[in-house]
Amino acid sequence: MTVLSLPETLDLKASGPLKAAFLERRGDAVEVDAGSVRRLGGLCLQVLLAAKTAWAADGKSFSIRAPSEAFVETTRLFGAEGALLSADTHGVQS
Amino acid sequence: MDELEAIKVTFFQECEELLADLEGGLLAMQDGNDDGDTVNAVFRAVHSIKGGAGAFGLEPLVRFAHVFETLLDAVRSNEVPSTPDLVATLLRASDVLADHVSSARGLGVVDEAVSAAMAAELKACTDPNAAPAPVAAAPVVEAPAFEAVSAAPAEVLIGADDALDDDDLGFDFQPMTITIDEQAADVAAAVGNVWTVSIRPKSDLYRKANETALLLRELARLGPIEAALDASAIPPLDQLDAEAAYATWTVRLETEEDENAIREVFEFVDGDCDLEITRGEALSPDAALAALLAGPAPAAVEAAPEPVVVTEAPVEIKAAPEPVAAAPVVEAAPAPVAAPVAPAPVAAAPAAPAAAKTQQIDVPGPGQSVIRVDPERIDRLIDLVGELVINQAMLAQRVGEYGIAPSSNLAMGLDELEQLTREIQDSVMAIRAQPVKSVFQRMPRLVREVASMTGKQARLVMDGENTEVDKTVIERLSDPITHMLRNAIDHGLESPEERKAAGKNPEGVVKLAALHRSGRIVIEVSDDGKGINRERVHSIAIKKGLISPELQLTDEEIDNLIFLPGFSTADKISDVSGRGVGMDVVKRSVQALGGRISITSRPGQGSTFTLSLPLTLAVLDGMVVDVAGETLVVPLAAIVESLRPKPEEVRPLGPVGSVLAVRDSFVPLIDVGLTLGYREASPPPTEGVVLLVEGEDGSRAALVADAIHGQRQVVIKSLEQNYQQVDGVAAATILGDGRVALILDVDAVISLRRREPPRPVEPTLIAAE
């Protein structure tokens, strides 16, 4: 189990590094710490969704830990709540 | 902040080019060339301006460009036929668009009334059915014309689209089914107020630092929203381009606002985001329809807007690491409705790369083949190459001094070096060479404006727009050409009535041409007007004391009087030409460039101004001569031949002057040393050499020098910039031995001689250090 801590701002500049960070952890169960996220953009949302799908395909656990209010709110705004913050998400504090 | 400013500067540079493309395309359409490519290019130009302007929040520009673009889109799809009248309207609209760009740049202000009227006109052209409304509305807004009052009340009300008035005057509106439809929709909205907004961001949206989350948030301000995400187009993580847009959204929005308010949310991402706004729920029939469309249609749907995107943002091409990156964008489009069905993306996938490939072939990417380089870097390079040329010449001279045989390896190596240096110089100069098009393209507008201001009908015919000339020359061509064109229309062309009376076409033709002639660029501005009124010019010159009344002048000399300082047809100052800038100023600025200007005129048939300029202000092929111990360079382009005169060929003329018999004609002998003040008395011409030169006006003269050193290419160093202008001298150069030599201005030397009758010469301080 590795932990991936998301930065405060998940915008255009963050999407490339975020993808790279996930690729590095491929094959391991991952816990995504979304506690300090203040801004979530469309590009990083795509990376998160793709990562979640990839982990599911690998049969490894993918969880989002303690997402910040902003993270949850923006995910809802995006209509991605179901896809990203679904049941197997652990420790959601909304 | 600086970065943004820099992007903005680039945007305005691009605007310049796009406006030029726009005008060029419209002019091609005017000439009957209205094929799809031309119309598309015109559309793209306006679209790209709008797109860029949106990114910077330049609202008035975006608004006008949008109306303009809408009409062009209709022309492009053949909904609106391209007629000469329409193209004329489009040309005027392009002028207004250019004003908006200038205004956004902080250069000048847009005349709002003109802009609004133009926008109304464009709207009327776009939708001929709706024409009565804007057309009737326009005069009401702009200038309350009497006719509008009696003729238009009903129509104006249609334009207002007001339900209350509709009730009052219901019978008037029976045919307006559209209005009723909208009303019906209004009723429906009153109940539901539900909209379905389908958002398909393109990669550019993110790249321009826009954000879908913000768009959704803005939508949420209009009313409660519910976004359905379609993530089906997102590729597997390892194939995902982190900066490309894949996800799309379908948003259900409940709002009291109208469609415009919803569209406004997307105003700044226009072009970077495919948008569909429909009234009502995205119910199953709609969804089914959308799903149906999503299958077979993606290529067709995407084909049209996609090339536009690529053209609009050349940056995108550079940023995209590989063609595959473009594919997902296309791929993302086919599923506008949240469809958790797996087969959809699979089906779309094979089509997408193909579509992407076609795109890349169709649009080679105008940005790709062009590199933007800071001109200063090129100038620096040219300077350095200039130094290289000088250095090479020095080296050759040193080697010559050692008496090394021309067949030796060293001498041959030097020859090769010289050739290489020349090639490098030519290539470097070619980098800075530009077609005169950039200057010419500003002129059609000028002609339109001047013609309408003077009440004349003028058609501009341009020729040789692709003639290339050094950038340093181009920059300084604009003013003289502008002035000559103004002059041609204002003073050259007659009024339509006069022209008809003279049996001419009421529309005058002004021709602007550029061509290369013997190593110079020649710009000709001619008109088919009345020609120069020589009697009047002559009498004005006498009245102003510019010439003495008893002087007998040839026609050509009279024509050239208009270049005299202080000559202005002051009894007829017009808005256009009489702005205090006389032809003498034009002549001086042209001369400062090492150029010449002349005029030929035929009464009743028109006049031609000929401007001749060096192709570059950087290098020159010259003959190095010795005069009274000074080394001078005579431009090779001016020299016809050189000879050593025999005593019997020199004939005295008057007390001091003499002429030289060359074959069957006599040519005035001019001692350069005497004219420039190097010496006070001429040695006999037979002791020196004579360079037979030809001035720009075709007049010949024989310049006397003491000896000829040879022919060589020299690097021009401006005398004006480093010292001051000197009569008879065009510029200076540095020779191989490191000495400064002056470059002779042949025409000036000839005219110096003409103007000043021989008299004791006062020593002047012209000397090379």
Automatic annotation (TrEMBL), chain B:
<dbReference type="InterPro" id="IPR002545">
    <property type="entry name" value="CheW-lke_dom"/>
</dbReference>
<dbReference type="Pfam" id="PF01627">
    <property type="entry name" value="Hpt"/>
</dbReference>
<feature type="domain" description="Histidine kinase">
    <location>
        <begin position="414"/>
        <end position="617"/>
    </location>
</feature>
<keyword id="KW-0902">Two-component regulatory system</keyword>
<dbReference type="GO" id="GO:0005737">
    <property type="term" value="C:cytoplasm"/>
</dbReference>
<dbReference type="GO" id="GO:0000155">
    <property type="term" value="F:phosphorelay sensor kinase activity"/>
</dbReference>
<dbReference type="InterPro" id="IPR003594">
    <property type="entry name" value="HATPase_dom"/>
</dbReference>
<dbReference type="InterPro" id="IPR036890">
    <property type="entry name" value="HATPase_C_sf"/>
</dbReference>
<dbReference type="Pfam" id="PF01584">
    <property type="entry name" value="CheW"/>
</dbReference>
<dbReference type="InterPro" id="IPR037006">
    <property type="entry name" value="CheA-like_homodim_sf"/>
</dbReference>
<dbReference type="InterPro" id="IPR036061">
    <property type="entry name" value="CheW-like_dom_sf"/>
</dbReference>
<dbReference type="GO" id="GO:0006935">
    <property type="term" value="P:chemotaxis"/>
</dbReference>
<keyword id="KW-0418">Kinase</keyword>
<dbReference type="Pfam" id="PF02895">
    <property type="entry name" value="H-kinase_dim"/>
</dbReference>
<dbReference type="InterPro" id="IPR004358">
    <property type="entry name" value="Sig_transdc_His_kin-like_C"/>
</dbReference>
<dbReference type="Pfam" id="PF02518">
    <property type="entry name" value="HATPase_c"/>
</dbReference>
<dbReference type="InterPro" id="IPR036641">
    <property type="entry name" value="HPT_dom_sf"/>
</dbReference>
<feature type="domain" description="CheW-like">
    <location>
        <begin position="619"/>
        <end position="755"/>
    </location>
</feature>
<dbReference type="GO" id="GO:0005524">
    <property type="term" value="F:ATP binding"/>
</dbReference>
<protein>
    <recommendedName>
        <fullName>Chemotaxis protein CheA</fullName>
        <ecNumber>2.7.13.3</ecNumber>
    </recommendedName>
</protein>
<keyword id="KW-0067">ATP-binding</keyword>
<dbReference type="InterPro" id="IPR004105">
    <property type="entry name" value="CheA-like_dim"/>
</dbReference>
<dbReference type="InterPro" id="IPR008207">
    <property type="entry name" value="Sig_transdc_His_kin_Hpt_dom"/>
</dbReference>
<dbReference type="InterPro" id="IPR051315">
    <property type="entry name" value="Bact_Chemotaxis_CheA"/>
</dbReference>
<keyword id="KW-0547">Nucleotide-binding</keyword>
<dbReference type="InterPro" id="IPR005467">
    <property type="entry name" value="His_kinase_dom"/>
</dbReference>
<comment type="function">
    <text>Involved in the transmission of sensory signals from the chemoreceptors to the flagellar motors. CheA is autophosphorylated; it can transfer its phosphate group to either CheB or CheY.</text>
</comment>
<feature type="domain" description="HPt">
    <location>
        <begin position="1"/>
        <end position="104"/>
    </location>
</feature>
<keyword id="KW-0808">Transferase</keyword>
<dbReference type="InterPro" id="IPR036097">
    <property type="entry name" value="HisK_dim/P_sf"/>
</dbReference>
<keyword id="KW-0597">Phosphoprotein</keyword>
<feature type="modified residue" description="Phosphohistidine">
    <location>
        <position position="47"/>
    </location>
</feature>
<keyword id="KW-0145">Chemotaxis</keyword>
